[in-house]
Specification:
By secondary structure, the protein is of the alpha/beta class. The chain has 15 helices and 24 strands.
């Protein structure tokens, strides 16, 4: 990652921040960028811990705005330095803030106490805890959710912070009173004044690394830089703890030399996996499998999510749960009751026999794996894939080739053009037409549109009873899920002759 001194505005990024007082001396916390997924969950953590919580964001949009109001969190729509008068005891600065952000600039100039998101999490919630951190390019949110649910179901009363809403609890966070705190470890940068990856702040007792592929091209200039971040992460895992590595991923295996922790490989394909599965049977609603640990078979388990990638995620959790003392019976019972996460193969509704599925997938590999899982779950239905390349990486030209191949198992593909932002470099911007042209050349129906509203009429015209419409985006996608369901509800569609 770039050093702060390498930025042209380095003089705004390098400054003396006041020392953060002990948690006992903090009463009020203000979050800049409070409606973001992670920041909103952080607000919930502080609120649950008894702090007065407030904040602001550029715009307030559901579902986070709704959840903040339900929590009793005060927040402003729009930014202004007046929001910081009188000054809160602590400001948490989201990583979307640039140095000239009005509230960030005011906090810096007035010498107000501030931390990045990961600094605050470590300072207030991870001290004196056994931090279980899940990292990886793909699968970390689902894996973190499975891990949190497993420890919660086993009565361990863990704290957790997950990058998605757990269906079982309806939340993405929990303070907890037990010995463990479970964290989704993001490799993205921390703040404009701290360009270190977030996960380097967490000092994990144990960790899982699910996958490694080049991502976050706006932060990491090369694969080498991206890989080095994970090498550093492996190096900070407690030497007395366990590092669970997905053995099926060669890049993940290659970070093993950088840790002093006990290494345990898990997965389905690598012969050296310590934890694996046999006798896998996919059924409606999930998968039966026989776990194997160091060559010994455990009793059969059921995991209620489709897709080999999700089973692999469950094996990663099994690895750490066993290492932390949970029994196979406790783990099996937790898996059986797991109801997934919002926006991870979430069925948003069924109208006129059209199944509308919402998923967070945005990296090409995640898109490909999600389509495969949908195919496995609904083998007799057409799969209509609808995609919004919204993340900073997915909008870039670097992934054009990968996206052109990621939709091979879909029957039809609709792609919305990436949203333009003020600092986008046109030379590095994805050409959506080229991507859909290449998909179409393989015989798949493919079309692109300038935005969700333009896409919707063609999508409605395409779908027919028996289809699965898989909508993938890491954002709200203009509410296209609910709009499609409403149209299907209001209009009886007929299968073409």
């Amino acid at each position: 990652m770039r050093a702060l001194s390498d930025f042209p505005d380095a003089h705004l990024r390098i400054f003396q921040r006041p020392e953060v007082p002990p948690a006992s001396e903090i009463q009020s916390v203000y979050l800049i960028g409070i409606c973001g997924t992670g920041m909103g969950s952080m607000a919930g953590l502080f609120k649950e811990a008894g702090y007065h919580v407030s904040g602001a964001d550029e715009a307030a949009w559901p579902p986070m705005s709704t959840r903040l109001r339900e929590m009793g969190v005060d927040f402003h729509e729009g930014y202004h330095e007046a929001h910081l008068t009188p000054p809160p005891d602590l400001i948490i600065t989201g990583n979307a803030c640039i140095p000239t952000h009005p509230e960030a600039q005011y906090a810096r100039e007035k010498g107000l106490v501030q931390q990045s998101f990961p600094e605050a999490l470590a300072h207030f919630f991870l001290k004196d805890k056994r931090a279980l951190v899940v990292a990886g390019t793909h699968g970390k949110t689902t894996t973190t959710g499975i891990l949190a649910h497993t420890f919660l179901h086993a009565g361990k009363d863990p704290g957790y912070l997950v990058g998605g809403v757990m269906t079982n609890t309806g939340t993405s966070y929990r303070v907890g009173k037990g010995a463990h705190f479970i964290v989704e470890g993001d490799e993205y940068d921390s703040a404009y004044f701290d360009k270190r990856p977030k996960f380097l702040h967490y000092q994990p007792t144990c960790a899982i690394v699910t996958a490694m592929e080049y991502d976050h091209a706006d932060i990491y200039d090369s694969w080498d830089m991206y890989r080095e971040a994970f090498e550093q992460f492996a190096g900070i895992v407690n030497p007395k703890g366990t590092l669970a590595l997905c053995g099926d991923d060669e890049a993940v295996r290659n970070i093993a030399p950088f840790t002093q922790a006990q290494i345990r490989y898990y997965g389905l394909r690598f012969k050296g996996n310590h934890v694996s599965a046999t006798n896998i049977r996919s059924v409606d609603g999930g998968q039966f499998f026989t776990p194997t640990v160091d060559g010994l078979c455990l009793p059969e388990m059921f995991f209620p999510m489709s897709g080999k990638h999700n089973l692999t995620n469950a094996l990663g959790v099994l690895t750490i749960a066993l290492a932390e003392g949970l029994t196979p019976e406790e783990i099996a019972a937790a898996y059986l009751s797991f109801r997934g996460l919002k926006r991870r193969q979430e069925v948003r509704g069924i109208e006129n026999d059209v199944v509308v599925v919402d998923d967070f997938a945005h990296h090409p590999t995640a898109v490909e794996a999600t389509i495969a899982a949908i195919r496995e779950h609904w083998p007799s239905r057409r799969v209509v894939a609808v995609f919004e390349p919204r993340s900073n990486s997915s909008r870039r030209k670097v992934f054009e080739d990968a996206y052109a191949q990621a939709f091979d198992r879909a029957d039809a593909v609709f792609i919305s053009a990436p949203p333009l932002r003020h600092n986008d470099d046109p030379a590095n911007f994805m050409n959506v037409q080229q991507v859909t042209d290449r998909i179409g050349a393989s015989g798949i129906i493919a079309a692109h549109f300038p935005h969700a509203e333009a896409l919707l009429p063609s999508l409605v015209q395409m779908v027919r009873p028996g289809d699965v419409v898989l909508i993938m985006s890491n954002g709200g996608f203009g509410g296209i899920h609910d709009k499609l369901l409403q149209i299907l509800r209001d209009n009886n569609i007929a299968r073409p002759a």
